[in-house]
Each structure stands twice: as C-alpha cells, then as structure tokens.
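Now for my pick.
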Amino acid sequence: MNGTALDLLVPSSLVREAEDGREATRKLGYVARAATVFRADRLVVFPDREGESDRGGGFVHTVLAYAATPPSLRQEVWDRRAELQHVGVLPPLLPDTSGPDGAELRDGIVTEVGPEGRVRVNCGLQHPISLRAPPDEVPAEGERVTVRVSSREPVRAKLVDDTALSVERADLGSVTADADVSIAASRHGDTLSVSALEAVTTRLRDADRVAVAFGAPARGLPAILGNEGEPVDTHTPFDRWLNTVPDQGSEVVRTEEAMFVSLGALSLPS
C-alpha cells in the first residue's frame, strides 16, 4: 500500500483478557509494532465500552501513544502515570527514519515559538534547533513535528509534513467514513484466497486512504457492532469483511497476531 494513507482501528476492549498491567502493556507494544512495521499513519482506538475491563480506552490509548513516542522525547512528553507503570516491557518500534533522498527524518517537540515564524525544536540532537515554519502552518509549543535532517555537522534541517505514527481515540464510523476503502478483519468475513488477493490489493493501492479494523480477544467485530447472528455486511460501516486467517487452528487469533497476518497479506506488491 505504498503511497496510501493507512488507518488501523483497534477497540478499547483490546486488553480485556490480560491478567495484569504488565501483560496488557506487552500486548499493546506488539500492536504498536504492527502499526510501525506496516507504516500506518494512524492507530485509532474506538470505543467498545461493553467489552472493556478495568483497563479501558484511556489505558489503551495512553500506552499506545507512549509506545509511538520516540525514546528521546518520552521524558519531555510524558509525566508519571499509573498506566505507564510497566512500559519497560514494550518492544522497541525502531521506525525507518530514512527519507527518500537519504536524509534523516526525526520526530521532534516544539519547545518555543518565536517571532517571524521561527520555532525551537527538540528532535533528539545534542541541542534543540531553530527552524523556520511555513507562514500558514506555525506549530504550537508542545506540538509534535517531523524534522528532515540533511546534515548534522553543520546542522541543516527543516520542518516537513508529519510522517510519524499518530495515536488517537475516535468513533469507528467517523474513521471509516473518511476512508476510500474500509476493511473489517474477521473470521466471519470472506476468505482471502490467493485468487481473490490481487483484486483486493489492487483496490487498496488505488485508494488515497484505507482503514482496517480489528476486534478484541473473544469479542470480534460483529459482537462489538451488535451484529451477531446477521450477515456481517448488514448495517456496518465497512466496504469489505475479510477472513485473513482461514481454517485457523486456534480457537482465538489474538489481535496483534491478526494484525501481522492481515497486513502482511494486504501489503503484498503486485
């Protein structure tokens, strides 16, 4: 899906069966890993309040957002929170920071907004750097930005359009409505066979924005949408329901497992 904006949607009940905060945090780390590996633009937590445990949408969003924050910026961005007690178990995301021309892309935080559209940005270099922002797009203090660094000695850098993974909370329907193609990954969907794969991936590559949604452990998307017992394409916000793990050998495929399997298939080149 090179060149296509990708939104991944996971429910607020994602860690409903985790035994403790440590297990829940580790699970969310691999969800963030999947989003990074497949170059997602947004990771959206949508509400499933009926399925939530004591660790609901706030916990899920906070841990995912922390995981998506570069290690060099975490101390500045995040204060001490109960939800972050076990973040030491998060796997490193190690996103690809190389730009198309060999320059380095770095996430940064605006620490100061000065006159004439100049901003100071902490982007993990030895010192914050001063950059000129576009006149109509001056970021606010504390805002996360992306910096293209073409040289470190001397420092040559500029602000570019945001390429970092963002983590948000939003209603499922509002995200799928903005997508050109929306897909529900579910064992109740159409089997994604070899013969069907080319047509699906071609449609995804032609889209400007694609949304792919996943369910929670033992609570799939039909249950979350209150659609159990009906055809899965009835009264739902998705263009296509796909079963990307046909003939699964485990009773339940974990969300993070389904993400790697599904996105691996949907990202295959022609």
Observations:
- The chain has seven helices and eleven strands.
- The two ends are 10 Å apart (CA to CA).
- The CA atoms of residues 201 and 268 lie 7 Å apart.
- Residues 21-37 form the longest helix (17 residues).
